[in-house]
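quick one before i forget lol
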Amino acid sequence: MNEMYDVIIIGGGPAGLSAAIYAGRAQRKTLLIEKGNYGGRVNDTREIRNYPGTITDSGSGLMEKFRAHAQSYATNQFKRTTVTEILKKEDGNFLIRTKRRGDFEARCIFLDMGTKPRILGIPGEVEFAGHGVAYCATCDAEFFKGKEIYVLGAGDQAIEEADYLTDFATKVSIIVLHEEGHLDCNEVAAKTAYENPKIEFIWNSTLQEIKGKDKVESLVIKNVVTGASTEVQTDGIFFFVGMIPQTDLVKDLVECDAKGYIKTNEKKETNVPGLYAIGDCTQTFLRQIVTSAADGAVAATASERYVKEKKQLDALLAPDGGKIAFIFYNPYDSAQIEKATQIELSLKDSYQIVRQDITRQTLLYDRLDLHASPACAYYDNGKLIKVEQ
């Protein structure tokens, strides 16, 4: 029999670690599974200055504090392995299969799957990855000490990392698709880059091809206005052109948007009850450590309420549960309160009455696909008889 957990967290980024802290504080039996380094891509960030309470720290330093906090709870377990499959069982729980550690079961799953660099498919990009083509300045900058290199991209990451790369390279040329003076980054990063004597911009341009034998030796850069292509000698090119979610494992299980980001509501619930998505893999406005940490806290709290509500419903809807009427209403609407009371008085002699506050108790309401209240659902020994709205 597989070991059962209250919560299994897939991914140990800031969202997953935050969720583990909240679950641990609630003394829920929790398993966090991470295939790489705890903290995820935050470890690649050399300096953090915008996390509340932390004036300055490295990404790896801050994530080590997250990890130590999460592992301080006796109810939390951490395992390094790769999840290969997630299955929803008939009883509403989940089965998790892993590559090396066997199978596990859980009442709730949190998906903190993160993102990875976008691959553009430019000729030579994949071939020279790790041999002059790079995606992480913190990881690879030292390999280009004293060399002239290029950066592709114009967003915050591209411009900020280009500035960092000048601590190692003698010159950094940024290939920008837009016209001169048009960058997609914040004003502070742009001003810093413009004032850096080691940085130059190649405007109205795109990368057409990467050439070399065993490593990168030259780039073909195309001007999108004139159509002219120029070959330049270089030892390396850094790509900072966006990220894509690592959600292939669950794309057939949960609802995602066209880009692959998982859709959630304000409680970080997916369209599958008991399955939550947190952090950068979700369809969210801002992807920062502070928002990821908040996602973990929200999901942990919401899932705790979900488990309690599910347990209550399972007991009420047992085969010997008798006749039960669930009344769904909004307690902040006085007309609905009055209507719910009238329904209860009319049914109390024939049914066990269970009031459902739809601002807090949504599991059965959503399961019945209700969209208005007050409403009433009638059950007889666990079987749905009818629904009235």
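fyi The first helix runs from residue 14 to 25.
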